[in-house]
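To assess whether the prediction recovers the assembly geometry, we first specified each molecular entity separately, as shown.
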Amino acid sequence: MNSFGENIKVTIFGQSHAPAIGMTLEGLPAGLKVDFDELQRFMDRRAPGKSYSTQRKEPDAPEFVSGLVGNETCGAPVTAIIRNKDTRPADYGNLADVPRPGHADYTAAVKFGDARDKTGGGQFSGRLTAPLCIAGGMIIQFLRERGIEVKARAASIGTVKDDGAFPENDIGEDFPAVSESSRAEMLGEIEKARAEGDSVGGIVECVVTGVPEGIGEPMFGGLENRIASAVFGIPAVKGIEFGRGFESARIKGSEMNDPFFFDGDGRVRTKTNNAGGILGGISDGMPITFRVAIKPTPSIAKPQESVDLKTKENVTMTVNGRHDPCIVPRAVPVVEAVAAIVIYDALLSAEKEN
Amino acid sequence: MNSFGENIKVTIFGQSHAPAIGMTLEGLPAGLKVDFDELQRFMDRRAPGKSYSTQRKEPDAPEFVSGLVGNETCGAPVTAIIRNKDTRPADYGNLADVPRPGHADYTAAVKFGDARDKTGGGQFSGRLTAPLCIAGGMIIQFLRERGIEVKARAASIGTVKDDGAFPENDIGEDFPAVSESSRAEMLGEIEKARAEGDSVGGIVECVVTGVPEGIGEPMFGGLENRIASAVFGIPAVKGIEFGRGFESARIKGSEMNDPFFFDGDGRVRTKTNNAGGILGGISDGMPITFRVAIKPTPSIAKPQESVDLKTKENVTMTVNGRHDPCIVPRAVPVVEAVAAIVIYDALLSAEKEN
Amino acid sequence: MNSFGENIKVTIFGQSHAPAIGMTLEGLPAGLKVDFDELQRFMDRRAPGKSYSTQRKEPDAPEFVSGLVGNETCGAPVTAIIRNKDTRPADYGNLADVPRPGHADYTAAVKFGDARDKTGGGQFSGRLTAPLCIAGGMIIQFLRERGIEVKARAASIGTVKDDGAFPENDIGEDFPAVSESSRAEMLGEIEKARAEGDSVGGIVECVVTGVPEGIGEPMFGGLENRIASAVFGIPAVKGIEFGRGFESARIKGSEMNDPFFFDGDGRVRTKTNNAGGILGGISDGMPITFRVAIKPTPSIAKPQESVDLKTKENVTMTVNGRHDPCIVPRAVPVVEAVAAIVIYDALLSAEKEN
Amino acid sequence: MNSFGENIKVTIFGQSHAPAIGMTLEGLPAGLKVDFDELQRFMDRRAPGKSYSTQRKEPDAPEFVSGLVGNETCGAPVTAIIRNKDTRPADYGNLADVPRPGHADYTAAVKFGDARDKTGGGQFSGRLTAPLCIAGGMIIQFLRERGIEVKARAASIGTVKDDGAFPENDIGEDFPAVSESSRAEMLGEIEKARAEGDSVGGIVECVVTGVPEGIGEPMFGGLENRIASAVFGIPAVKGIEFGRGFESARIKGSEMNDPFFFDGDGRVRTKTNNAGGILGGISDGMPITFRVAIKPTPSIAKPQESVDLKTKENVTMTVNGRHDPCIVPRAVPVVEAVAAIVIYDALLSAEKEN
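The predicted structure of the complete assembly is given in tokenized form:
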């Protein structure tokens, strides 16, 4: 289904070319204040129209239709919608029965048949990450009130890595990576892919600091389970790892284990953070760290091989429309949004137990 | 919580040194036959007592207390328990208030306080994967009836890779990898870690063939979401990737996209399978492939730094007890079990729609 | 939370005086056609503005913002909103801190504190049954395609019973009861309550015909559990009974048990239907019948005793605003809506098993 | 499915003649103490073997296999089983294909086919209320620690009402009603039914005192929704009403509304409790009161009309086996158990919000 969460629950609705997209956020405590300007700035980080992204123009301004009195939650579900304005369904006319390789067109056709929304990816469109950012952008504000910060960056684009220190340093305004030189290189990598009629993937790294120890549940209710489950709801994600992740498979226990010690304040800390802040599914008080693999945008200008589901013939096709040669930078706030929602949800669970 | 699944739901219970561990499997159709001998052989692949594993002796023979009439499901929840026999809680006496690095001891102490089960990892013990294998082992049989095969292998141990072809070839009886020479090298890697009082991690690769197209839900209900969520319920998992996974972050869209074509039978297939059989969360008819990063066993013989939660002092501690220098081989059937449960669950969802 | 359902899930959002109210319906199969005119006629049965109801004027015309392509479901969540137009929050100014007896004002104040939406009942308003009717009105159409009819009536208003045969006969256009003379008496009962500055309750009876046998789950997933759980989501409901209901507590087993027989078509039927079509939580092929007790509208013109939560004083208060002296007739389509949603949801569950 | 609850979740398993029945209770905080003797006394109130019940002899002594360390919860799921001992499946041989009127035999046959457990009602047996009492009996102890008391009685048997004051007075040891003379009359009513080869129903009334205000969620998450949903999981329940219930449908708003006032302690109270302690699904601080209609036991000695599902013929049948002429007294602790579980679950929800 289109929902996730336990104490708070986010439901996403809409299609790329429907009248609107939107979200409902249930279970929020009453009396939380939303800073709409800050929320809009957060939305803008994901919005299209940047040099490296699709040229579709959408201001992505959420309209709140319920759940707020003024700028404050009242305990009722918060629903916000974003009207789709700059739709060009005609761009997709020739694709109706020819699934784009790497897209969900074919599986949508199998699952929903001829009644599926055939324009712009329908409900599988990356555009559906906008409402996810409404929910996450609000919750990032609520977490900050509790001393919890969520930060993500593009850790790599193709083979180019961000060599800046993170999360110590902030990301750039032009591009969500730390090092200025890396940012230039990354933009170059994306421009090169665009020039070739191709696309390129990358890795988003996310760090959540200030999470108290003891958040999360054992076994299937752990932070890793919940973050992973929600992160794969972002289109184009093909992998996730926590802490040392896949590297941990190559090393020894004596290197991997994080030694405990009492810090100056009498709190238990670990000398390293190979676990990514999570042991047994539960936060240990260190920063939560994870990395997400984003595949290259499947929409590319190069001709590709596909099938015509109506005529039953193999065909060569070209994807028209306006597409990002790299969605990694726009995925950065989306990953933050998902992390924030899951952490906040787990935080509310933990509170009920004490 | 300790459950997952939608149409079928698995609940795991027990602790390492409780009277028993077990599972309840709700939602199974009536009339499915269980081959108990085959199930036991599956359980034995995970059971301890092998050269490369802990010397704890547990036959791991499930006792079914409900849900079956003879060897057939009757539509009621199936519950099976395994009595814990070879328990030695005394081994853990000195650890009660000194959390083992890399284990959930510390986070369990934060979450559950002094009332937590302090022996053998309590509910966080790897032993809880045995009941998961009861559920998965049954379901693997039900899937086979539908032409779906679930196979996993140790793709690497530390830096040693299995260079055999998979899933075309079967895994060895002595060790769950394909190539005979790789198996010898992997066992050597494990033996070396044990000799050093250390441990080593690895990667489990899983392939599910025969899954029909159209299984899974969009967004948060996708196969990737569900498999990832459940896989992180296996202790020591730190990452998961589908298809080309993290590699996809480094390549171009033209390399990543799988071209469609009609095969001889008039079915849509893809020439490559970089997507790992999943597009938009939904199966595309190609094999489902994923890889799981398993960290090295945190229990090692080497002295480690930790804290005494009672005296509030930093201490050096040594883990006693019987431990695996590498849990990767025993995790192989557990990953199969989880994959089977999720796929079967999704399969039942899909059937209701048609 | 504000959702219910398993295979399909309805989420209701909005408050009485928020910009909008609405609903999201997830899990609908693709390709189902919605007759918007019929839906509007269904909505109109619940809408205010009738002789016996509040004078608030709201056309209650749903705007579908997602999930439909033309008039057909596409497999994405269906979201529809209704703008609130004729709001008069000023009517509620004097009630902000004086809870109306019989309303949720006091419990809302306890639960959500000062941030609660204080106007018009907020999220507890009966107005939230309008979006429930969007979902139910659509599903009634889908059920009819499968030969399932959902019909409800006002079985009694205060002490006046509808003495018409039901569901054999249809309800009247002026009032949702069968017998013409009973309808006149019922309207008189309501008019009398209004004239006295009082209100009156009643019973809604619902019958669902054409439900195939075998729908529903054992124990906590039975039709009775699910219908009851959802029906208590309708404000003012204080009781529910299935088949002979409370009467069954007074009779003998030999009177209560419904004898089985094979009907002419070789189908198993029961000679009586005291069970209300449900045995062990599962449909037995006979009509599903249940009755719902609706308390008198708590908003009455008579002065009432209450408390001022700010000044901490006992006070006498009068409820202003526009209110129904009896909400039973408007609850009739709402009960149909809830019954339809639950039955359809259970129907989809059952299909997956066969 | 066989589970309910959100913060805590109860899963029931077993069949009447399976090796065992049992329950798993997830989500309990760690460190709660169980008084096993008191629990056994609670179980005994439901157990068979009394004058008015079946002669099946089962001590119903739960064996805890996980989740407790000593007598204290440790944060892991608590699982307990009860071995079935006094099974006589032969009693049911002649019923295999002839469904007993009023039982779930026919609907079980439709739903689960020939693989269903045909002996003793299988998973639909009233015996499954024993594990429900393990869960509820524990939780009643936890609630008492918080000043919350759960009490139920047989308010009527057939047409005989208990005319004692409740919950002010305790129920009798011989029979769960307050008035001594009513108890004698009720036992007479039951004995008469038994002598006639018949059975009789009744009403269970439950009162929960000490519930703080603000417990429960709006709309579909209200206390009424949750209690109703779980109560219909008790076999033979055909109706439920809260507070004045069905009577409220016959009265005026001015009679029904409970006037608020500040009591001596400065707490808000209501002068009457027609709402049964719940407004808008949320507790208002007054006692939670509800009444449950229990139909007469469907197993009666009198010959009844039924069908042979194999031969497709109408038949006359007689129910053998050991049956209660009235299950109402044994249902009394079961209703308490369900009420306790739901209230405790809602209490944990509420705590997380503050």
